[in-house]
Specification:
Keywords: Membrane, Transmembrane, Transmembrane helix. InterPro entries: ABC-2_transporter-like. It comes from Rhizobium lentis. It is a single chain. By secondary structure, the chain is mainly α. It is about 75% helix and about 0% strand. It contains eleven helices and two strands; from the N terminus they run H-H-E-E-H-H-H-H-H-H-H-H-H. It has a two-stranded antiparallel sheet with strand order 1-2. Strand 1 and strand 2 form a beta hairpin. Helix 1 packs across helix 5 and helix 6 packs antiparallel against helix 8.
């Protein structure tokens, strides 16, 4: 655990050194949130609600969803793994005490937490002042939402690592990167909430782990799920975390064998 925290802290310090990049990330996030709010205002027009969701709720969805939940491009982890495989640096992971997936998780968790504090917070404050921001449906919903954010972050990292490890068999990280980026943006509800999906697609998206990245946390925040349902879906999300950890462990075990066989 000490090594894990050290890797995460080192990643945060490294991220903090790039001040110009931080500024560009903040500006980029503001542009993205502004675009999302503008789109939803145009969609709603003068209507008070669409599919039972009000415009203030969608503004909150746009602000929080695009900052705390889905603003970080996790597909870059796929690119990182693909580069390590292509250059042969992946072989170095065999002699390290910690497993490669665990190191990836720690090294990317740090920047994700840094992004929460340095990018997400100022963007939320600015747009809350400009447009107003609905608070959580209740204190209890707010507390459960925090747990959902933790599950969301964990799943986002695990899914990116899972896609990245597939590069050992696909040998084309770029296609996996784009596939994950598009698949995740659609099925997580990051761009369009699952409330507005066609029934067949919504039914499938509701049970996939992507939905726990943006849709379910925001459904809890806005009170679209009662507390009993919120705890049930939270348990399902934790089960997805456990399942993905097991799948990643199996993939890494197979990948290690490929490294040894191909590397002699």
């Amino acid at each position: 655990m000490r090594g894990f925290l050290a890797l995460a802290a080192a990643a945060i310090r490294q991220q903090a050194d790039y001040r110009a990049e931080i500024l560009s990330m903040v500006l980029g996030a503001m542009i993205e949130v502004f675009a999302r709010i503008s789109i939803w205002k145009a969609v709603y027009g003068g209507q008070h609600a669409v599919a039972g969701i009000t415009l203030p709720q969608m503004i909150a969805y746009a602000i929080i969803g695009a900052t705390l939940l889905s603003n970080w491009d996790a597909a870059l982890v796929v690119r990182e793994i693909g580069t390590a495989i292509r250059t042969g640096q992946i072989a170095n992971s065999l002699v390290r005490p910690a497993s490669f997936p665990l190191m990836l998780f720690a090294e990317n968790l740090g920047p994700r937490l840094f992004n929460f504090a340095v990018v997400g917070t100022p963007v939320i404050v600015v747009f809350a002042l400009l447009y107003g921001l609905l608070p959580p449906a209740s204190v209890a919903h707010g507390l459960v939402f925090i747990a959902y954010v933790a599950v969301s972050t964990t799943l986002l990292l695990l899914i990116s690592i899972l896609f990245g490890l597939l590069s050992f068999w696909v040998f084309d990280a770029h296609s996996l990167e784009w596939f994950m980026r598009g698949f995740g943006a659609l099925l997580s509800g990051g761009l369009v909430p699952l409330w507005f999906f066609p029934p067949a697609l919504a039914e499938a998206a509701h049970v996939l782990p992507f939905a726990w990245i943006t849709y379910y946390p925001m459904a809890v925040y806005l009170g679209q799920l009662d507390l009993a349902s919120a705890f049930t879906y939270l348990a399902v999300g934790i089960c997805w975390v456990a399942g993905l950890v097991g799948l990643i462990a199996a993939l890494w075990s197979g990948a290690r064998r490929r490294i040894v066989v191909q590397g002699g």
